[in-house]
Amino acid sequence: MQVMALDAIETTCVYCGCGCGLYLHVENNKIIAVTPSLKPPARGRLCAKGWLLHGFANHPDRLREPLMRRGDRHVQTSWSEALSFIARSFDEIKRDSGPDALAVLTSAKATNEENYLLMKLCRAALGTNNIDNVARLCHAPTLFALGSSLGSGSMTNPIASLLHSDVIMIIGSNTTEQHPAVALHIMEARRNGARIVAVDPRRTKMAKIADLHLQLRPGTDIALLNAILSIVIREGMIDEEFIRSRTEGFVDILDHIAEYTPEVAERICGVPAGLIHDAAVMYGGAEAAAIVYAMGITQHAHGTDNVQAIVNLALATGNLGRDGSGIYPLRGHQNVQGACDMGALPDYYTGYQKISEFREKFEGAWDVELPASQGMTAVEIMSSAGSEIRGMYISGENPALSYPDSSRIRKSLESLDLLVVSEIFPTETTRMADVVLPIASFAEKYGTVTSTERKVQLIRKAIDPPGNALPEWVVAARLLEIFGISSGYDTSADVMREIAALTPSYGGISHERLERGGIHWPCPTQEHHGTPVLYRDGFPRGRAVFRHVDQRGMEDERFTLIIGRSQYHFHTGSMTRRVCILEREVPEAFVDMNPRDAAALGIRNGTGLILESESGTIRARARLSDDVREGMLFMPFHFRESPANMLTEWQLDRFSKIPALKMVSVSIRREDA
Amino acid sequence: MMFFLEKRDLPELLRRAGAFFEIIAPVLINGEPQLVSWRGEDLALSAPNPLLPPTRLFLPPRETLFTYLQESGLYTFEVPEVRNRLIFGLRPCDLRALSLLDRIMLAEPFDELYSKRRRSTAIIALNCTEPDESCFCAQMGAGPEAHEGFDLLLTDLGERYLLETGSPAGIMLARASEELLERGDDVEKRKLMRESRDRIMSARPWLSPERMRSRLREIDWRSLSEECISCGGCSFVCPTCHCFTIADLGLPDGERIRCADSCILSGFHRMASGANPKARAEERLSSWYMEKLEHMPVRTGLLGCVGCGRCDRVCFSGLHRTDIFR
Ligand code: SF4
Ligand code: SF4
Ligand code: SF4
Fold first, then answer.
1. Which of A236, A375, A394, B51 is 20 to 30 A (C-alpha) from A47?
2. HSE-up of A270 (CA within 13 Å, CB side)?
């Protein structure tokens, strides 16, 4: 009777960082339907991925039993055998090559509790700071630039704050497709009179409905943003009081900025000077203006500089610390914010407590000695896999498809002595693993996730995991025990209690409180209501800092390929490509190409193309579209048949070490040529 | 037959019905009304209609049609069990939608699973005395009062309920609680329903199916749909939407599933050649309304929109406002 019952469980969407609330309707241990929750942020709306979230959890492809490699094959094993094998092998590597031969990559799909325990496992049990998460591939520049200039590397205002904006500038974000719940607010603001400036090389949906669309050449954002700032300064639209009382370094950038006249920017960006001027006046003249950005800003070898250019503009106009103003870096994964908050980073413990300053605190709390030297970042870990790094634990990620220069990644992963991968579905990466651990999906466990707006929300268990799959926090807790670090966690709420005790910004957060709704961190105490808008009364580091950034030279390229996503798929598609309707919507990769370029090369809609870069070669079909400008191509990276990241390179940003995943120069030819 | 039922006795009536049926009823879960198996919780009868249309209990957005198991080249199949259910609190608009689905799913080719579920489900409908501001069932001729298609019908008279029987199963259910009931009449109900209808009509006096049909071809669907993100939400919550797709998941063993599909999604219309006659959102939206207002009535004799207002409640772009037909 109980198992057959029809139930509705409120939880948080697993896909993007918007953190939409939804109800899973469950019958007979299966999800039969999804409906949106009426609470913020989305207030009764979902995107197609959310509506079709009943599609993958009950899929028969789910991993059900732990697997171990025997020769070329994976054979089924028990949890105790798999875990003791992992512990033994990690110990051996540690004995032979030292703890820094080990590394952990945590998952932005896993809960805060799971990220925390894997972080503890890595530091306290394995003894290394070689831990990172996928944020390295999306918002490391945000963490660095916002963190160093303002004090916190995250969205300054909640999504709903956009409803109070007069002007919203969207730059490098295909918001309707990638962050639909944010787009919802932008569109609602627009209906109520807000004006929209879209800055994007592509004519995205937002660009189509925007008041101004600045269709710049890919990679020229700094020149454009600097020009906007220089116009704002010239027109006297800066907030002098704000600059004087709350910032430093403004005078130092003045001379440099003056060089970026609209005409200079026009030459670099290919956007008419007049249009740049209009955009500047629109942004500068607003009472409350917001800047929304995503991967189009960060995934560059100058990603940190790009973000800094945004910070400079917001600071100069005093657009921080108030409703409707602010900087909105949009997070891609459900819990990529949380993974960073939980210290799945080589240089920080939870809540961005530096390992150099807080080591003793954590040594005391965990009663072990902790490593002092800073660890490697994700991309560095990958590039040393097989040499310095010999053993790796990858939680729920698919680097074989999502990292730059993926053929090189596959080779590195294959040359590891021990590769442990925990996953819900078999992927390109589990195929290479020595041990595969079957993990409970978001619908099969309790825990918390932190959305792009710093809002900590509950996910609740709706169905049982398939076979012997376990929540990852249970796996991590068991491994901790094997390594002799007592854990004694009965529930994930126990883990959250430990997190709260060690993390000032999560100090007042508990599962009990979250039962009544999400809380925006920082929330230091049980009585505190959370902090939706940051910097209302000042910056944690005293004064916010201007730092001048310059546009780097652009080589003349053959075609600039921009890599992104489609609304109907998520990342490497391991979930969405198993949802038949999503797969039907966009069944294969495509390369968007301007019809004029296509005509010159004799390419028609649907022509098979070969794309070639320094790193690799792939094929995909052409799709002619005016939405990309000449000389530019666009393609999504979800498809293993056309793995776009085989083309990208290992060019790293010097501050944040993000690889330049957003664009790459390619040559193209017809498949039949 | 008509009876009065004291409000405090309703749970007892349901508990007795629970001897024959699994009871599905709207209750508040984290503050929002949801249709779930009832275990004696407070009923959410004054909350708005749940977003998941109850018609979806007969045609779930994702359901297993059968599982298959291969053994030495031979397949065995297992069909899911269907249980006796009683849905309590179904609203008149959704009841009308259910009759429309019956005319589609039970016509040739007859849908076996739907029919099985339909036959093993009893319905206690609830008239709407407190319509929501998004409701326009009266204009669509589907509410706020139910006239057929229920086993029992309840009307909130303030102090007590009026209980009406609509089928032999309903009479049986009433008998099981005989001593809780008192002979009644519908004098007060008729007055309340007239008021409720007037309220709905006066919120949108200009709205009618004829008005909507004549506006269909005048509306500027292109500018209206510029913010539509093709999420499919409007059709996933519409109680009369019933399109589905079928997929086999898993080899050699696995299951054949059926899941809700939507003509709002572009891939729904794409042909094998890759050509797509409805590639643009505006074409899909206008044909969605065309289907509800023109084609469904021809096929089934019933209007495809029952005025439940759910599409408006979930839309990203706010384009399903009834004022577009003004
Ligand atoms: S917008 Fe993001 S969080 Fe909301 S339903 Fe879509 S994928 Fe899920
Ligand atoms: S079209 Fe909208 S109002 Fe009409 S029945 Fe469907 S969801 Fe309800
Ligand atoms: S709910 Fe609104 S945004 Fe979504 S498909 Fe329907 S009309 Fe478009």
1. A394
2. 14
Q: Which atom of ligand 3 is nearest to the CA of B264?
A: 5
- Give backbone dihedrals phi and psi of A588, rounded to 5 degrees, phi first: -150, 165
Nearest Cα of chain B lies from the Cα of A588 at a distance, in angstroms, of 12
Q: Which of residues 145-204 of A touch B (CB under 8 A)?
A: 176-177, 180, 183-184, 187-188, 191
Interface pTM (ipTM) of the complex? Answer: 0.96
Q: What is the pLDDT of residue A1?
A: 35
Q: Which residues from chain A sit within 8 angstroms of residue B50, using beta carbons?
A: 35
**Which range of residues forms the domain containing residue B170?**
2-324
Q: Which of residues 27-66 of A touch B (CB under 8 A)?
A: 27-28, 30-39, 44-48, 50-52, 54-55, 58-61
Q: Name the CATH architecture for the domain at A559-670.
A: Beta Barrel (2.40)
Architecture of domain A67-137+334-455+464-512: 3-Layer(aba) Sandwich (3.40)
Residue A16 CB–ligand 1 contact under 6 Å: yes
Is the pLDDT confidence value at A154 over 50? yes
Cβ contacts of A196 within 8 Å, gap of 6 or more: A167, A168, A169, A170, A186, A190, A206, A209, A210, A211, A212
Judge: B314–A32 Cβ closer than 8 Å, yes or no.
no
CB proximity list for B208: less than 8 A, separation 6 or greater? B139
* Cα A666–chain centre separation: 25
Residue boundaries of the structural domains of chain A: 67-137+334-455+464-512, 140-329, 559-670
User: How far is the CA of B3 from the CAs of B151, B163, B165, B184, B189, in angstroms?
Assistant: 14, 5, 9, 4, 12
Q: Is A26 on the interface with B (CB under 8 A)?
A: no
- What average pLDDT does range A485-511 have in this prediction? 94
Note whether B315 contacts A: Cβ–Cβ < 8 A.
Answer: yes
Query: What distance, in Å, lies between the first and last C-alpha atoms of chain B?
Result: 41
Confidence of residue A555 (pLDDT cuts 50, 70, 90): low
Q: Which residues, 6 or more positions from A414, have their beta carbon under 8 angstroms from its beta carbon?
A: A386, A432
Nearest Cα residue to A323 out of A160, A191, A449? A160
Q: Which of A196, A107, A179 is nearest to A330 (CA)?
A: A179
- Which pTM value belongs to this model? 0.93
Q: How far apart are CA A344 and CA A135, in angstroms?
A: 9
pLDDT tens for residues B273-315?
A: 888 999 999 999 999 999 999 999 999 999 999 999 999 999 9
Average per-residue pLDDT for chain B: 94
How confident is the model over A128-150, as pLDDT tens digits?
Answer: 999 999 888 888 889 899 999 99
Residues 262-291 of B with CB under 8 A from A: 262, 265-268, 274
Copy the structure tokens of residue B147: 């006239």
- pLDDT exceeds cutoff 70 at A608: yes
Interatomic CA distance for residues A342 and A349, integer angstroms? 7
- Given B37, B229, B255, which is nearest A47 (Cβ)? B229
Residue A467, chain B, CB below 8 Å: the answer is no
Residues of A in contact with B261 (CB under 8 A): 581
CATH number for region A140-329? 3.40.228.10
A250-258 and A303-316 are packed helices; what angle lies between their axes, rounded to 10 degrees? Answer: 110
Q: Rounded to whole angstroms, how far apart are CA atoms A139 and A116?
A: 19
Q: How does pLDDT run across A196-230, given as a tens digit for each residue? A: 999 999 999 999 999 999 999 888 999 999 999 99
Report percent pLDDT > 90 for chain A.
71
**Total domain count, chain B:** 1
Q: Whose CA is nearest to atom 4 of ligand 3?
A: B231
Distance between CA atoms of residues A48 and B256, nearest Å: 22
Do the chains contact at A606 and B274, CB–CB below 8 Å? yes
CA-nearest residue, atom 7 of ligand 2: B238
Residue nearest to atom 6 of ligand 2 (CA): B238
B84, amino acid identity: N
